[in-house]
Amino acid sequence: MLPWRGALRAAGLPRPRSAVSPRTGIPPRRLRCGPGEARVAGPGLRHFLRECAAPPRVEPPPGAGPAPTPAPGTAKVYLETYGCQMNVNDTEIAWAILQKSGYTRTKKLEEADVILLVTCSVREKAEQTIWNRLRHLKALKARRQQARLPLRIGILGCMAERLKEEILHKEKLVDVVAGPDAYRDLPRLLAVAESGQQAANVLLSLDETYADILPVQTSAGGTTAFVSIMRGCDNMCSYCIVPFTRGRERSRPIASILQEVRMLSDQGVKEVTLLGQNVNSFRDLSEVQFQLAAAPGLSCGFHTVYRPKAGGLRFAHLLDQVSRIDPEMRIRFTSPHPKDFPDEASVLQIIQERHNICKQLHLPAQSGSSRVLEAMRRGYTREAYLDLVHHVRETIPGVTLSSDFIAGFCGETEEDHQQTVSLLREVRYNVGFLFAYSMREKTRAFHRLQDDVPADVKKKRLEELNTVFREEAAKANEAMVGQTQLVLVEGPSKRSASELCGRNDGNIKVIFPDAELEDAAGCGGLVRPQPGDYVLVKVTSASSQTLRGVLLTRTSLSRAAASH
Q1: Cα separations (Å) of 499 from 7, 312, 514, 550?
Q2: Distance between CA atoms of 29 and 490, rounded to whole angstroms?
Q3: What are the structural domains, with CATH classification, of the chain?
Q4: Contacts of 156 (CB under 8 A, 6+ apart)
Q5: Of 96, 403, 406, 562, which is most buried, counting CB atoms within 10 Å of its CB?
Q6: Coiled-coil ranges per the record (predicted)?
Q7: What pLDDT score does 294 carry?
């Protein structure tokens, strides 16, 4: 027996579903350097499974009998979600699993028998938020123990995988730790915790997609929903912790995705967002006949750290099939990688042709400096990125763009920063997500680069990026004043009970009066718009984040597209 197998067996841990040796870190397919790129040492796939056996999953001692399982309908679970929309989807998956095991859900913290936090590790601030929350829960747990009402606390998701030992050993507050690929094990882990022992499973899988689990949707009003189409990431950007907390990239079978979208359509959901760390590298290999397709080319001027992946049904096929399910359901997707929009533009053309695929793209740039982009291992230059932006705008007239940017990455000079400022001005994004760099352990940057930009400089640069972004976004949004926008009503405005809010095709928030209006179908009489309705709004003013307007009429997605 190989030593690493014996270690896993001794710890009571199952082997990964596809054999990956923690000793060698060699998966079925090695990551390769791109053309002309020298092979260098650095973090590899061995980090995915290293130390997975510590701390071990706890089993009941011999003779103690099976661990107690909560009786159906008696144990109440309280779930809190932090971080990205992938974590929102993970929360729905975890709840679907627990619901089938007899747990009930509560929205009141004081009623809970189990509190589960679905966590994020992408930045230090996100992790600090969880530590602060745990300090608050420590007092609650102490009060419950005094009243002889046990309370179990669990940490799920990316932070669970990254800091498993520290979480379990710090003040002995947390009872259960489950990584992103271990949600199926939650009922067993909680049963072990009921016996007074800590329990953990943070093993990463090479094939887990939860394809057979239909998440219990928790979005307010049931108007919108998120559908996970893939998990993990293979891009290995030097700043990013995701490949080490969520594992290798793997895609759900298209059939299971279509089944979930049809279910949501039957439930009346009017907008679905397809989720993944790199959605446009989607590759369904679930059927033998799917594995014969050739690998598509990358966008011109882009490259990867791995060899082209042949075989599989691709994202363009999935997008085509999803858009045909319900002509009255909007389709969005996030996040794509700029490299995976091939020159033949099949994905872009489908977006342009289908009235129910939103004319909005997220194109994460991260930096406007080619030198910094190389250090980030993004696989493109500033010039290649701008060429792609121009190509997108030519193919999809009127498209709105959003992006991600990092201020103060390793080695970033003032000149590099000013190139990012100029990129913001040149592209003029409608929506932006900007953050100061936060170094993460295990990443290539942690092993190879120096976090040498002072915190005060990062803060100053981030403030400048935010100022420039808001200026340019305001100009982009002001161009819509006087136009008529199709808006999906989401519900009341947070700031005024007399106003409603929704989002237009470009995913920009629109505020308008809650008033009666006519229906474009000519059914007679006045109607008041409800969540899930499509309405036409004439834009009267704009800011960097929102549009304001007046209601014209209630309509449908198909009718609005036909009259456009």
Answers
A1: 61, 47, 5, 10
A2: 44
A3: 76-201 (3.40.50.12160), 224-479 (3.80.30.20), 483-563 (2.40.50.140)
A4: 90, 94, 116, 117, 118, 119, 177, 178, 179, 180, 183, 186
A5: 406
A6: none
A7: 73
| Alpha carbon distance 40, 105 (integer Å) | 49
Single-letter residue type at 376 = M
Could you report the per-residue pLDDT of 316-348, keeping only the tens digit for each? 999 999 999 999 999 999 999 999 887 655 899
Angle at 283 between CA 228 and CA 178, to 5 degrees: 40
Report, as ranges of residue numbers, the positions in the chain whose pLDDT lies below 50: 1-41, 43, 45-70, 72-73, 220
Both tokens of residue 76? 């109440």
SS (H, E, C) 208-271: CCCCCCCCCCCCHHHCEEEEECEECCCCCCCCCCHHHHHCCCEECCHHHHHHHHHHHHHCCCCE
Per DSSP, the residues of 375-392 read HHT-S--HHHHHHHHHHH
Going by the DSSP 8-state scheme, the letter that residue 555 receives in this structure is E
DSSP helix/strand/coil, 159: helix
Residue 543: closest CA among 489, 488, 495, 498: 495
Q: How far apart are CA 543 and CA 474, in angstroms?
A: 5
- Which residues, other chains included, contact 291 with Cβ-Cβ below 8 Å and sequence gap of 6+? 285, 310, 311, 312
Q: Which residues on adjacent β-strands are paired with residue 519? A: 554
Q: How far apart are CA 13 and CA 57, in angstroms?
A: 7
Query: Model's pTM, two decimal places?
Result: 0.82
C-beta atoms surrounding 50 within 10 Å = 17
